Amino acid sequence: MTASETRPLTTVRTFPPGFLWGTATAAYQIEGAAREDGRTPSIWDTFSHTPGKVFEGHTGDVAVDHYHRFRDDVRLMSELGLGAYRFSVSWSRVQPTGRGPAVQKGLDFYRRLVDELLAAGIEPALTLYHWDLPQDLEDAGGWPERATAERFAEYAGLVADALGDRVKHWITLNEPWCSAFLGYGSGVHAPGRTDPVAALRAAHHLNLGHGLAVQALRSALPGDARLAVSLNLHEVRPLTSSPADQEAARRIDAVGNRIWLGPMLEGAYPEDLLADTAHLTDWSFVRDGDTAAIHQPLDLLAVNYYTPTVVSHVVQGAERPQDDGHGNSEHSPWPGADEVAFHRAPGERTAMGWSVDPSALYDLLTRTAARYPGLPLVISENGAAYEDEVGPDGTVHDPERAAYVHAHLDAVHRAIGAGTDVRGYFLWSLLDNFEWSYGYAKRFGAVHVDYDTLKRTPKSSAHWYAAVARTGELHAPDPA
Hints:
By secondary structure, this protein is of the alpha/beta class. The chain has helices at 27-30, 43-48, 66-79, 91-94, 104-119, 135-139, 146-163, 176-182, 196-220, 243-266, 271-276, 290-294, 358-371, 399-417, 460-471, and strands at residues 13-14, 20-24, 84-88, 123-129, 169-174, 226-231, 236-238, 301-304, 309-313, 340-343, 377-382, 422-428, 447-449, 456-458, 473-474. The strands form four sheets. Strands 2-3-4-5-6-8-11-12 form an eight-stranded parallel beta barrel, surrounded by four helices. A three-stranded mixed sheet has the order 7-9-10, with helices on one face. Strands 1-15 form a two-stranded antiparallel sheet. Helix 9 packs parallel to helix 10 (243-266) and helix 14 (399-417) packs parallel to helix 15.
């Protein structure tokens, strides 16, 4: 079956036994307690408190107060029948300056969270880094500096020593593309820098930090631990079949995907990427032995997917659409791709303005599996933001989100049927939360949060997804 073929929505799809059903969150987006128990500012604390950086000045100071309400949130997951929960650890909560010994109060929070999950029969999946670099490390140069990669490996060891006896699933980095190119290139994410060379240096040191962290985890964790990295791989599609548009797609594939896949899974940076960016840097920051250190065996490749990337070639000086879905900036997050334009794909859109295209997820999974046979995949993020409202009866009905998730799970099921080894799916997100530079204006949660009272209300999509998770059977949601 190809990506363009469809199946009746009424057909029930059965997923393989042992398929992992979960939801995902990130520390800064949900925890709050920004100044409690020794936690110091991360780059997102600083960025969100900088006027003009985040919608209406929103911050994660309180977020949805998961730090104090985690037991209730785990109870919600249990009631929904979820088998797994992907969360991230706040580096500055565990190691406030990014150096030295761990703060035990910080680690104790994650110990309590993991214990609560295990008691509820929910498998914890821990992400070490979801964009919240300790501000002290940014003050010392941040990810463009090699020392940050070394500090990250030390931090990974501290967390592994504390939780390795209870956590089996470990993810080093979440979406390093965003950390490097939105944080240091376009400046729409923390720390808000706009230097393409710094962004490329950051990309390399994120890669190196991943490799060094994997080494640290392997030395500290039991042999049955499962190690992965979460990449927001771009399903890049040329606007037309012209050679120029295909060349534009190649450039974006290089700086969007292969900049990570090359060193992590193949042991080298792509030659075309180095050529594309040669006018910016000679890549002398890559030292002998770095790519070998980055190229560490992984047990899983975690993939985050929301929408495809549609590109075309633009002659220099001509009008250049920049609708890449990654925020507005005069500075590009795509170094080496100055003559590439980005277009919105046609069709339905989410509240983020992202096109809904599950066929792109099918194509992404099957192509990645073909390129890296023998490496299992997991969907570590997939979901959609919509304009959710609480009804007069106190319920939240969100048929659009259920339809989105259903269509994308169908794409995952088709990919499995085509021979792709996909082991699990984590819905983004468990809770409405702080959506980075969009503040609290965009709701991705399966569970609605009233930001005034912090009351949690599972949406209709949560109940539908719960039934899928409990049975392993994908059935069409009620469209009414």
